[in-house]
Structures are given as C-alpha cells and as structure tokens.
Amino acid sequence: MAVISEAAVGWPASEAEARAAALIGRARLPLIAGLAADLDAIRAAFALADLTGAAVDPAAGDALAAEMRAFADSGQMNTTPAEARHRADLVVVAGPAALAHAVAVGLFEAAASPLYPWRTQRKVLLIGCGDAPAVDFGPTTVAVSHLDADPAHLRPVLAALRAAAAGHGLTAPTGDRPTLAAITAAAAEIKAAAFGVLVYDPAGLGALGIELAQGLVKDMNVATRFTALTPPPALNGKAAALAGLWTVGLPGRFGMVRGVPKGDDWRFDGRRLVASGEADAVLWVGPLAPGLPDWLPAAGTVALVPPGQAAAADVVIEVGVPGIDHGGTLYEARRDGLSYLEPAAPSARPRAAAVIGRLAQIIQGGAAC
Amino acid sequence: MLIRLAGGRVIDPVQGLDAVGDLYVRDGRIVAAPEPGEAVDETHDCRGRIVMAGAIDVHSHIAGGNVTLARLLLPELHVNEAPSPDGMPFAHARWSSWEIGRLYAEMGFTTVIEPALAPTHALQTHLELADLPVIDKGALTVVGNDDLLLKLLRERESRDAVRDAVAHALAASRGLGLKVINAGGAPAFKSNLRAFSFDDEVPHYGLTSRRIVTGLLDAAAEIGVPHPLHVHCNNLGVPGATETVRATMAGAEGRPIHLAHIQFYAYEEDPAGLFRSGAETIAAALAAHPNVSVDVGQVMFGPTVTISLDIMKQYSGHPHASPKKWALVDGDAEGGGIVPIDYRAKSWVNQLQWAIGLELFLLSPDPWRCLMTTDHPNGGPFTSYPEILHLLMDRGERERWIARMPEEAKRRCGLAALEREYTLDEVAIMTRAAPARLLGLADRGHLKPGAVADIAVYDDLADRAAMFRAARLVLKDGRVAVRDGRCTGWIFGRTHALKPGYDAAMTREVETYLTDRYGVGAKAFAVPDEAFGERHVFKVEPCSH
C-alpha cells in the first residue's frame, strides 16, 4: 500500500480512501455499481468512470435496460401522476406492482377542490390485481371492475385487449383467465374513455410487454385520448438514467472505453462483468440502497454504504444519506421529477460525492499506485 | 491581466464600428485603450481576421426533460466513436451537455438560451445547463397552459393576480424570460381537440388562445421582463398558418412580442390544398409591426429530431416520424413530444421549407428583428449555422443549392429571384447585437468598454461556412476558451436569470395549488443554489422596472 501524501493531493486522505483508490486505480476494468445516491454522487461516479475507464451499472440496471430499450425501439406515450389523478376518467391498472405505484403516488386521492370539475366520474379497471385489493379508490371513483388474470402473465392479456380494442375479431378463446367476454367488455370500457390512463410496471412486463402496453395506448389515441403511467426504477435509478443521458447520451448502464462512452446492456451488466471476472474491482455506491447485491464479491469491492449497514467488502466507507444527513437531488415519483431534498437531520458524515471525488483525485495524482 | 487583440477588423454595429484596430481586455471585461507605456500581458495577433462580440442564440433546445427524452429515443443519432481530450471529460460524447457547450464555443457562440423551461422540471433543466461548459446560458419559463394561470384568467382575476402568478413562475424556475407554446393547445389536446387556432376556445376553460397571449403580454410588461414575450404560435406547420401569425402580430397591439421559428408558419395554402411559400406575407407583416421580432427556424437537410412542448402538433406530426418511432408526454401543463425527422434534399416539401427559411432572412426588413436559429434541433442542428451564414452571404453558393431544388419546390417560392447578400455587419447584428438587445443583456453583443469580454475572432475566408465553423480564437469572460477552432479546456459560464418580485399572497396561493395538484408543495419544484454544490451557477439580471 502506497502512502498517500497530503501535499500531493491537497487533503488528508483516510486510509480507507487510500485503499479504495488503490483498488479502483489499479483495476483493469473497474465497475462502478449501484448509483443509489443523490445526483452529485452520480455525477462524481461518471467522472470517475471517465478517469478510470470503468463500466457503470445502476442498481436498477436490469429494469432500466428493459424500459429504456423499449423506449428507444418504439417510443412511448406517458403522463404524470398528477395528470392521471386529476384528469383520467378511466384508470386501467395492470398487475399488483402497478397498483402499488398508483396508490403510492396518490392516484386515487381526491383533491380538496377538483382541478377539472367537468371530468366525468372515474372508473377503475384492474387487471390481474385480485378480486378485492385492499385499496381505497377514493370518493370520485364510481366503479371498479376486475379482469381476472395471472399477474405473472399479463402480456397475453394485454395483447388480447389490444386486439379486441382495435376491432380484430378474437375468435379463439384466450384461456380460462380472463374469458373472451370479459376481454371484450374491458376493451369496450377502454375505448369509451375520454382520457384513459394505463398503469403498468415496466420491470414486470419486460421490453416486449412494454411495447404491447404502449401499442394499446397508441391505438386508442386515434379516436380518443389515452396515455400511460409507470413506476420509476428503484433506488433513484431514474436520476441515474437522466444524468447518464445528458452526460454521455446513454441511460445509466454504459462503459467508458478508451475515453468513449459505449452503451451495451449485456456487455456492461455488472452481474455478468463480475461473474466472468472481467471486472476486477467494484465501487458500490449505495447510500440509498438497503444492502449490497448478492452477486458482489467481498474481494476487490469498495462499498459506500449508509451508516450502520453491514457490508462484506474489502473497503467499507460509511457515507451520509441524502435527504437525511445532507441535502441532495433525487427523483421524486409523486411529482415525477428531480427535486432537491434538504437534510432532515444534518450530520457531518461524508457525502458520497465527496468521497468519490477524493478517490478520483488520488487516482489522478497517481499517488495510489 | 491586460490582453490585446491586435490588428483585427473589428466589427461592432452597436458602435457603428467596422475598422482595423486593437481591442483590449482586462479582468474579463473589454476596456478602452490603455495609457501609453502600460504593459500588455498577452497579445493575440488578429491581423487579417474578423473580430466580433461572441455570438448569442435566443432559441436552441439544449437542455431539459424533452431534450433528454429525445436522447433516449434516438441513440442512433449519437453513436460515439471519438475519445475526449485529456482534461475535458465527455467533450466528444455525442449530444451530451458537454459536447453542446464545446461545439457552440468553437463556432464563437458565448451565450445560448434554452427556450422551454418547464416550471415543473426547472431543476433538471438547470442541472443540465450547469453541465454545459464554456458558454453562458439562460432559459425561458414556459407559462400559458398551466392550470393555475388558466384558472386565474378564467375566473377573471385581477391583472395583478395574473402578473403575480407569472412572476412567481418566472422567479421559482429561475428563467430569463417568458415563453408561451400554442397557448391553450395542450389542454385542448387533452380534451381530444386535434386543431386549435388563435380564437378557438379551450374546451371547458372558456378561454381563447388570444386571451391567454394578451394576458401574458400584460403580465410581461408589468413585471418588466426585458425579453419580449416569446411566442410559439398555434398551427405550427399548417398550410395557412400565415394568417395565425398575422392575427397574433395584430393581437399584440403594439406590445413587444417575439415569434419563434417563424419559418414553420410561413406556409400558405394553394387551391389544391398544398403549401407554398408565405415568406412575403410574413415579411410584409413584420415590416408593418415594428414591435415584433422573430427567429427563423431554418430547415437544413439531414436526420434530426423535433422536440416540442406543443403536444397537439407533435401528435399530429407523428405519422411523419423517421425513423418510425416517437414519444409523447401528456405532462403537467404541456409535457412534450419527440418526433424524429429526416429533412431530405430529394423531397420537394423539405426543399420548400429550406427555401422559405432563406426567403425570410433575405426579405427581412430589419436584421435587428429577424434572428438566426434552426430551432435546434427541430429544423436542423445548431452546427449548421455556418452553412446558413454562407448561404446568406454568398449568392453564388445559394444558386448552387437552388440548382438542385426540385421544380415543384422552386415554383412555390421566390428564393431564386432574391439577390441580397448579408454583410458582415448584418451578420454581427443578427447573431450578436440584436439577440443581446432582445434578451435585455446589456453587457454583451457588442465590444464597447465595459462589455463582458466574450469575443470571437475568425479568419476572413471566402468560404463563410469554414470561417464560422471554427473560430480562430474565442475569449469567454476574457479567458481563452477556443484556439484554432478547438476548445482549450473546461471553463464554465453562468446561467442568467431574473428575480422578479410578487405579492406574498401569491406564495400562499401557489403553495395551495401545488399541494392540491401534486400532494407536495413548492419546495419540491424549487431550484435552490444548494442543488449545485460548490458551483456558482446563477447570475441575476435586472428587470426593466
């Protein structure tokens, strides 16, 4: 272990940071994973990736890969929770995860004064959510209907709905769940909406399922208005995707290859890089994460974790949690955008961005080698 | 430190200056010639070169949620192959914020305005702008389709209430000016209208586009927003939109108004229902309304993407998407639409759009009121500005392009008969002095002592495209930012913003509205300095009263 010279880098380097910088700086292919952190830390991670030629993979990398690929392949029609909440006269919910998101962002909450008093009373159509989910659909919902379906297999149901709504005669039964009659009735309900919103979970549907859901939405807009709402990727994954797009043109999962950002969902999949041995050091950035993923080996891993979190890693550095220990910019699902959160309980714990910045300084200075 | 730009042909229309001489810079500002004997620390040889103020772009979509959504939709538009130079991370990452700043600077641009700052996504837009190196930035706050404002107008609240709501939006989003996009069009589309004109009424709102625009004109004047209300008119791209433009110009009733990307409205309808040039109509209307300024929104050939908060127009345009994919967000207020497009040189329609843009430049009665834009990236990328300048300054070059036009396009416009060639002085007005004046940025766009030392030096080449593509030297705030057409390293400009006041009662009204609409209050939409860490991003500009 080289001694870190204070004079060389201009600040007192802790031993943990020195060891971390040595691991990352010496790696053939470092992986910067997680990015479950505030925007400053994400930006710092990108800069470190540029410096070290690292691969970058957010914690929500798999979900992002499916959703972003579907978006880049065919585009989408989407809306915001607030628009869906106030304007939609029909909310179609595909599966339990979508229902949980709808509830979490207040889709069924009544406003103190309705923004659109002319809106006809709302209906809710639940697909594969069970017969009696424990959800308060609010005072403005007049009817809740159910389309019985296996929540693990929603794609065939969405395909049948799309076909029925488009007027393609479904002559063959689609199976026991749901019945053809139920599909036809649900399609009629969808077509009758003035401003319908389909809520679905991209992670559950996968890229092809997302295209199906979006195909249904787009078809409806020929005659009426219809759009979609989705939960954002977990652990601030949306912020990582957005910052990736404006920094390197790529959403979250990418690699810096000889100074050139490259997007390849397979090549830069962190799990694969570790399993194959291609990545020989990992910086886990996880102040917002509940723990490290099980595929991360302890050897060669530097983990930035929230206070008190146990982590099996060569180097563990506790950092503050954005929004609690220090302020930070995070993606807020309810208002559907980046928001700055002030610290709830300010502390002197280091920010992940500052730690990553210091690692870059050490590596750039060559002191760690 | 005293810097001398020695022996260049200095062109500054604000001073009526076009002469060979020296220009001095000290501590980031232009200064008068020093006393004899005073030591010059750094001299740049500008002999045989053109010295102008740094260029300014009033309308270029360089940041914000829709720009980033377009990046997501079109990875094929920004395949990366070139590594970035040492010390300039992401400088060559295609279509990144970093590349945008570098490319603008290398053309001699030093201030660029993002024209669609959605208040609900102001923080993201400003974070993106803060990652744009070298140049100064600003953004225009989009109002006019948000429910709070529409409610105040619908309920005929006082002009003071409307003014305060607009001032609050401007201050909270840290905008430099006000923009309205197809006023009323977004809620109309959400109610399933597919067309919307200046005097049409938004369903359920009892408001016309005219009423919204005139309400905003009043508010802008009372707040003292230096930049005229920046208007994206109704009926973009529709044959016959010239009438919409004329109605909007007349509707301003003499108040300052800026009509954006006017080329996309300079379309008249022929008896067969096809479009033909309406440039003469627009130019005549512009001459008749000295209160009106425009930017052109020139179309250039090649693949690009249209990015707009005009969701009605973007939806209607999606069948023309090339490649065949598009995105549309029914957002809070507007949202946005992303539709890729390929302006093809073999298409008479695209050729006619190209020709109409040039006609507008060449028929313009006043370079102070007709600015160069491509509505980046909607008509083409901002990197095509050098080609546009060449076409405007060189009739021979124009004729070479016109020779390739299909007859169908030629007979639908009058471009071939136009002989005008822009002078360097007119270019300096159109790309420097006029945009600075229109934005109310008094410290730039000219080379008077006291001005910010944003300066571009070009080789005086007959090939004007080559000349303006790569500035020989660019100073940003008096620091060398570009040498021999290449960015020399990362420095950062500021984001200019207004900070208008408003009645404290509006703070409470906005808080109530936001909480009711989103379940979260104004803090969730704020743009605090703390979000930018150690970076000092903003510079507050004064309102005009």
UniProtKB/TrEMBL annotation, chain A:
<protein>
    <recommendedName>
        <fullName>Formylmethanofuran dehydrogenase</fullName>
    </recommendedName>
</protein>
Automatic annotation (TrEMBL), chain B:
<protein>
    <submittedName>
        <fullName>Formylmethanofuran dehydrogenase</fullName>
    </submittedName>
</protein>
<dbReference type="InterPro" id="IPR050378">
    <property type="entry name" value="Metallo-dep_Hydrolases_sf"/>
</dbReference>
<dbReference type="InterPro" id="IPR013108">
    <property type="entry name" value="Amidohydro_3"/>
</dbReference>
<dbReference type="InterPro" id="IPR032466">
    <property type="entry name" value="Metal_Hydrolase"/>
</dbReference>
<dbReference type="InterPro" id="IPR012027">
    <property type="entry name" value="Formylmethanofuran_DH_asu"/>
</dbReference>
<dbReference type="InterPro" id="IPR011059">
    <property type="entry name" value="Metal-dep_hydrolase_composite"/>
</dbReference>
<dbReference type="Pfam" id="PF07969">
    <property type="entry name" value="Amidohydro_3"/>
</dbReference>
<feature type="domain" description="Amidohydrolase 3">
    <location>
        <begin position="43"/>
        <end position="481"/>
    </location>
</feature>
<dbReference type="GO" id="GO:0016810">
    <property type="term" value="F:hydrolase activity, acting on carbon-nitrogen (but not peptide) bonds"/>
</dbReference>
